[in-house]
Each structure stands twice: as structure tokens, then as C-alpha cells.
Amino acid sequence: MLKTYPTAISLPKKLKLASAIGRFNSTTSTSSPDPTYTQSGYRRSRYQQRPASTTTTTSSTMSASDTTLPPPSSRATQTKAEKDSKSRGAGSAFFPLGYKEAAQQWWSSVTPRQAERNVLCFIPYLREATADNASTASQLSDLANADPFGHRVWRQTMVPLSGKDRALNEFSIERVGEQADDTLVMLHGYGAGLGFFYKNYEPLSRVPGWKLYSLDMLGMGNSARPPFKIHAKDQQGKIREAEAWFIDALEEWRQARKIERFTLMGHSLGGYLAVSYALKYPGRLNKLILASPAGIPEDPWAVNAAMPEPEESAYGNEFTQDQESIVNRETPEGGANTAFIQADPKDKKAVASSIKSNSSSSANKTNNNNGTNTKKDTAPPRRPIPGWVSWLWDANVSPFSIVRMTGPLGPRFVSGWTSRRFNHLPPDEKEVLHTYSYSLFRQKGSGEYVLPYLLAPGAFARSPVINRIQEVGRQIIAQSSSVGEVQKPLREAGFPIVFLYGENDWMDVAGGYAAEEKIRKRVEQALTDQTRTEEERKRENGSAKVVVIRRAGHHLYIDNPEEFNEVVRKEMEETKEWGRRMRKEGVLPPLPPVEN
Asked: Are residues 61 and 130 in contact, defined by beta-carbon separation less than 8 angstroms?
């Protein structure tokens, strides 16, 4: 079991490149595209040269005179290079980027801020609201007329927090000329960044009356990266301190933005931390949307400090799953959670349990329950966790540490993940996302060092969400009057919690269903509590549901953005309608007047 958690490792001496350079192949390099708008409002790629200096105030659309990168190779040459795997050396099947291209990207890659902006340039219709000169105002006016969903603009800001080197990178979208009665806040997963939600921003901002925020968590993405230190000695203390490192920053950001209540959506580790935020800071959420959240089910090997670390996990599928085969498959077989989708509601619990048992079994490929045969290979299999992986995990050697250690081979190492993760996307988007990923992974280590404190090897939670999910939305709130006098404490009346999973998700949908059952029982208990007043029963809003997104894996928001966005938009509309109804009945206070 994990005993100590060093947050830094000793790097080797300066990497010697002579042998690596000798193996460089002669394939042409791949340049970074600078996406721009087409007349239809969607982005296309326009290759330009790299800017001599990049600032954070650069507009999202740039002219050819602004940049200075060598012209790109032809698509035919790239295709030939991709097929010529032997020329790339050993391991080309796993790391398709050639040695020469990797070294060139390491030497001349764009800044993390510019890499992020290149991804955001693929967002249709929306434009940055920066300068107030006549030219920009004219562009925004033209865009407002072209945008079929209203006048929408985005802003990007570094929001300073208290303390040294603490700030959150914020991306926001607002509907100009409309009052924003509701707020959606989006959190990314481990080691990722807000740019990965680029296919969700425009569709989700279509809902009237909402303002959207997306944040890079502290120590990740392009947020500030202060040193990550844990001072607690016991395991539970380490968990609380590690969670607080992120959620305290989120709460401080909320106070800085003067947001009273909001809907919080988190993916993977962001979902885990969203639950932690709801428990520590009650009374701030209207709804919780957990997209393939980490840490739901319990694994005794991960929870008990006296036991060894877990020996099997499906976590390896994050690096081996081929997204193109999932998103663009032509067969109707489905994936790990297909049986759950098709099951009758009363049978979903048994089906979810069978999915979990099938995924961990290495012998049986058929399930003879009810006389049906289920192919095992439709479920992401659990694989043994190599001993060296557990050692590196507990020693806090993150995958990003390896990227930094490998120097000019770092981009090649990252291509092992990006080539599978984004291979279902158009070439231009895939290339820009690879550059963005590398720009994040190579940055100074900070929030990434939280991993072994919260999760055991294989991504099993040390404090499983399933053991505390029923208390989300049930905490005591102390309200204060305008003169600061503490009134009688009130208890939260619950709020909806939505669990989203991909059809081929390596996260176990059985954990989501088990959480749904615990939440429903807690709602029934609240409704039958004889000590509650009639007003408290009117305020009762607890609920839970599990939704499986078809043709999607763990990153369901980018695998099937159309279906994902439709589900989230529906949740946003339901939240708005519930608030309107509660204010009409006097259960909730009226909205504050619009500030001029």
C-alpha cells in the first residue's frame, strides 16, 4: 500500500541525443495549422508561419502577416509518411510520430497559450470580445447577424486567487443583450485542459438565459502551477488535503465571480472533484452533471491501507482504445454498456453487475443468463497492473514526468495517446489537438501530483464516491441575514445528479447505477421524514439518472458531441424551468435585478 507520496523526482542528467538523431528519418515535418472561419461559420485550417512573439491578447483570428512557421507538407506526403511505419523505427505502431518530427516539434512548438487558442478557433460562430474599437464592433455586429442562435461572444481571463502563484485560466461565453439567470461551470479531467471541450461550447451556449464558464483546474491546463505539497500524515488527511487543493480554488473563483448558485459539470477526475465540492460547500449547486466520473465504485484493495494495491484495472484502455473503431463502427454490436442501454428498467441493476463481472473475467467469453450469448470483447477488459506501473504510481512519477524527461522524444511519446484518442477526427483537428496536448503535458509539474493521493493504481478511488454520494445535496446550510446575524440552519433539499457514460466507456456504468440507487433511497427517506415541514417537502429536488451516450468511450463529450450536447442542453433547460417554477411559488427568492 502507498506509504509516502513524493511530489518530485530526480531527473537524469542531460539527455544525450546523438543516438536518437542518428535514427531520424527523412520524412517531412508537420506544421501547426492556424484554423480560421469558413463562410458557413465553421472552421477550416489555414497554415501559417509561427509568430515571432505570442501574447495572450492575440485575436482568435490572425492574418498571414502575423505568423512565421514553415509551410506544411502536402497531404499526400503525410499519408505516405504515416504508412511508412518501418522508417520511423521500433515501436512505430504505438508511437506513430517520427523521431525527426518529434524533435522539430520539441524545438519549435508553439506556446501553451497559442496552442489552446488554435483549438478554440475550431468553435463556430463565436468570436472573442476583446478590443472596443470600431473594427471589432463591426465584426461582432456582422457575426451577430450571421449567428442563428443569437449574439454570443467569448472571453479568456486569468482569474487571480489568494496566495503566491495561484490563478485559474477561465474561458467564458455570454449571450450579449440577455440576462443570464443560470450558470454552467465545466471542469476537465486529469492532466487535460478546457480546450478539449471545444465541440461543446457552441451547442451548449445556445440555451437562452445561461452563461457558460470553463476552467482549467489549479495546477493543470494553462492555469497557474504552484508547487503541490501535502502535509497530512494519515491517509484520510491526505485525501482531504488533496481534494481541498482543487475545490478551495474553485470556491474562491466562485466568490470572485460573485456567482450565488450554478450547475457544475465535471469529466473524469473533474467529476470526482465536483462531488467533493458539493459536499464541502453546500448550497451552491443547482445540478451536478458527472461525465464518466472517476472514483465511483469501491475497491477494497485501494481503500484499505493495510492491503496491497489493486492488481487489475480497465484503466489501460485509456491508452489502447481506438476511438475511430468506436465512433465510426458499422456493426450494431455496441460496446461495454450496450446491454445496459437495451435492458428493461427493472433489470438494469443485474445487467450492470454482469457487465462488471464480465469485464474482470479472463476465461468466459459468453454469458448464458436467460439463454443469451454476450461477447466478452465488447467490454473493455481488465488487465493485470504491472508491478513497475504500481511502483511508479506510488512514487508519484506521472506520465507527464516521462514526457518532460524524454526531451525531444516527448512529442513522439505523446503521439502514442493522441493518435488513438483523436483518430476519429478530421486531420486538421487531430493535429491541433496533438500539439495542444503536448503543450500541456510538457509544462511544469503541479496538480498532476495529486494522482496517488486520490486514486490507487488502476484509477480506483481511495475514498470512493459511492460511500458518500447519498449525502450530496443534504448538508446543513447556515444562512446569514443582511446584518450578519446567523439564522436557524437549513438543510439542503437535494438537487438532480446526472451520470453520463460512453457506450464503450472503460469506466464502470455499474458504479453509476449503484450511486443512482443510493440517491433514490435517500430521496424516499427525505420525503417520508415526518419531522420535515411542508415547505421543506416543496423544496425537495433530489433525483438521479444514468445516461449512456452511444458510439462513445471515456471522452464521450468529444466522441459523440451531438448526442452529449443534446443531453446536457436538456438538463440545462430542465434546471431553468425548475428555478422558474420555484420562484413563482415563492420557494426560491426572486432573481436580482440586472446590473447596468
From this structure: no
